[in-house]
Amino acid sequence: MSNFDISKVKALAWDVGGTVFDWHYTIKEEITALARSRSKDIDATSFTNKWRFKMFDLLQPVRKHEAPWKNADQLHLEALDFVLNEFDWEMTLAEKEELNTVWHRLNAWPDAPKNIEKLRTRFKVTVLTVLSWQIAVSSSKHNKISWDGILSCEFLGHYKPDPEAYQKAATLLGLQPNEVMMCAAHENDLNAAADAGLRTAYVHVPAEKEVVLRHFQGTGEAIGLDGSLSTPSVVELPPDNKYDVIAKNFNELTTKLLINK
Q1: Can you tell me the distance from the alpha carbon of 57 to that of 40, in angstroms, rounded to the nearest whole number?
Q2: How confident is the model at residue 8 (pLDDT cuts 50, 70, 90)?
């Protein structure tokens, strides 16, 4: 933990896609079952990852205000068309819309819900996500997670990692940026939050990091929230003091944040 006063932090803003919600294995299970029911022989892992990362690809012109404003539900549906075409899988519009709802019932990582509830005893605990408000609400309800608020970038006028998205979240919470701590398993999210003036907490979710590394293993590159490509690191904790708090799991993060409560 870096040398800062935790008592100055009034709110935690959580990334949820990959940090709290296990998008990869939830979607993969759905694709596997659906393909089996249609006697379709596909690589469900590849399908799932391509769907997810194509959405981020489509998000970039929206984020840069070079395309009409859309939320993640719309972008997931558009991305699905590209992936279905690549896998030579035909679906009706109704079938695609039904499949797209799987994003509204993402399973949480096992230790996330109970620790989020504990953190609410000290902080305002909110979501700050590029996912749609409906995805965040529905998946939270699916996992019985309660938040003090849900902030989707679809309503902020800016998508992460634009600094305005983080700063707008602080404003809506009635706080200064340095009174808000971004909590995430993704370093690019935390780096952008820090640049915008927020405090940062890294929680290690090895399965999420492994998914990204495996997907880009062939190219040696990983994709960021802004669509940029970079060389991925191994599945390990960031260097000490890179962020205000670094935790190897949700339980350790809670212990560190509730110290001296």
Answers
A1: 26
A2: very high
pTM of the model: 0.90
* Per-residue pLDDT at 241 exceeds 90: no
User: pLDDT (tens digit, 9 = 90+) per residue, 182-192?
Assistant: 999 999 999 99
Q: Which CATH number fits domain 24-105: 3.20.20.70, 1.10.150.240, 2.60.40.420, 3.30.1360.70?
A: 1.10.150.240
Sign of the CA dihedral running 177, 205, 225, 243: positive
